[in-house]
Predict the 3D structure of the following.
Amino acid sequence: MSLQRALLLLIATALVAGIVPAGLIIDRRLARELESRARDELTQAPRLVADRQEAGSEGLVMHARDVARAAGLVAAMVKGDSAAAVRIVRAARGSFGDGTVLVTSAGRVLDGPAPGAPLLEATRRGETPVSVLSDSGGLKSVAIAPIIWQGKWLGAAGITISLGRPAAGVLAALTRSDVLILGSRGALTTATTTDATARLIAQQALRWPRDKQVREVTDGAQRYLMVTAPVGDAGTLVFVRDLTRDLAVLPMFRRAIVLSGVAALLLGLLLGTFAAFRVAQPVSVLADAADRLAGGDVDAPLMRSGIREIDRLAVAFAAMRTALAARMEHVERANREFAERQARLETLQSELLQRERLAVSARLVAELSHEIRNPIANLRNCLEIVRRRIEHDPQGREFTDLAIDELLRMHELAEQMLYLNRPRDPSELACRVEIVAREVSALASAGMHPDAFMVTVASEGDPVAALAPDSLKQVLLTLVQNSREAILADRSAEQGRPGKVDITISQSGGTVSIDVIDNGSGIPADVLSSVFDPFFTTKGAVDGVGLGLFVAQGLVRTAGGRLTATNRADDVGAHFHIELPASTAVDVVASPRRLRGNTGRDDGPVRDETSEPEEK
């Protein structure tokens, strides 16, 4: 058997096996659902009728009271004029209801059916009762209201509505079922079904209690569902559903299922023929290509297929013919990867050598730092002597103080290189930011004409940062000096507005913010992310080593702050933003000079650092 015929047989078998059981299951399920729906609707019928009667009773009560209060009725009843009273009651009824009721205080019925003693007794108490009465004309809904004159009960008057065929038709439409109305002794008064069906249902209803339970009655092939409900104390309502009629849709549905199944089978066979052809043809082409490959032809054409598995088979067959080329390419790629790894290894070796050189340089710097402290101390002693001799020169004293401060900063930097892990004095971990910033401004502007370069300081309040004064001074000096060098280099070939650096200080909650903004050319976008990297610099090899911003960022981070670099929003100049934690210290040094005891400059020379024991 060919592949195409096998696929067609398989598709036909699958369709028949799927359609026939599905049709039987759907037929049985639909029959059960139709019967269940009929039972549910029939169960709801007594409640729907009860709700309708309750709503109708309100209307009956209202009209009964209107009839009992009709003009002239009381006078006619007092005079004993029965004929006039009947005319007044009938005129007051109008078009509502089917008749009227009029009873005297003696219990004599002047018009309509006799309401009975319980209803009359209720009217004596001032009530307006509603009930269902049975008389020769069938069942009637009756509502009567008392006729009162000067507190005396003269009788009762009301309205009647016959429960005949019109009422049965309304109930049948409301409950979607046939309705039978039985009298007080089970006599059939009206029905919406045929006479034979009505008699059969009436006979069965007399045997069952009026408990609103759904029961089934059969008459040959006919099946009926019925439920009974009382109508007051006088009659019975019977609701009937003809199951045979409700299930009459099943034969048409079965014919539709059969026709749909045949159409689905034919369509499935048609589509199966097409699918089998699409499957068999690529397989046949692959078989021919395999035969040609056995004869040494590796270029036989292949047919692609829309079926994933067959298309995958064709792709695998084509890949098999190019396996040798693929393996050679793999070898070449492995060689290239080996060369790249060799190059990375050489790079790592160069980095290791560079790190070794840096380690040696670091040891040399540490030794130089140890030896440089004594010359710095001697220079400071000399400057202290000079300062005392120019006591009457304020400007000279100021610049001498600045020079001494710079020497002290150099001394502390040397100590930091020696004692990187030595704890700092807690009294040095706070400073007044504005004072440090103004000293930096004075240092950076020294010797500069205001038309060429100037530094301004603006502060909101007097923020105190949790950072040593020397450390903050080093950070700000690094930023301002970088800005000054960039501005002067940018304006060396042009005449424009003076270079300017603005230092703005503010505090928000527990954070002190310092913004250093210049009006230079800004930082190129391609190097903005690298300005804090160690040994990165845009200056020449002679002018810088690329450690200033790296060290500044390290000092800020050590204090728990953050230093970031961006360009100004108007693309004119650089913007460095410093965030430092605010200090809560009570005694805060004002500046690096006050920290070192230089407020009076009469504290004597600095002792020679050679008296300290050397590092071991």
